[in-house]
């Protein structure tokens, strides 16, 4: 009367169960890529501007260094006379 009734043991499936694979979603042909074009364009423009600024800074530093060497040689030449 108070004995628990055990469930029947299920039979294992005969075919192996293969899990479903999910593939990443690919943008459909109806989807607009215009926002991505704007982001890529902005990134390219920022990269070009930063590269130009870095090149200008390097040229300025080299020019100042050359001017300093020339002025130093002129000043030291004036003291020797």
Characteristics of this structure?
58% helix; 1 helix; mainly alpha
List the helices and strands and how they pair.
Layout: H1 34-80
Task: Describe, in plain words, how this protein is organized in 3D.
The chain is mainly α and 81 residues long. It has one helix spanning 34-80. The relative contact order is 0.04. The model has no long low-confidence stretch (mean pLDDT 83).
Low-confidence stretches: none
Label the overall shape.
elongated
> Structural class, judged by helices and strands?
mainly alpha
What Rg is obtained from the alpha carbons, in whole angstroms?
Answer: 38 Å
Number of DSSP strand runs = 0
Oligomer: single chain
Instruction: Give the ordered list of helices and strands.
Output: H
What is the residue-averaged pLDDT? 83
Largest sheet: none
Per DSSP, the total helix count is 1
Strand content: under 5%
Helix content: 55-70%
- Cα separation of the termini: 125 Å
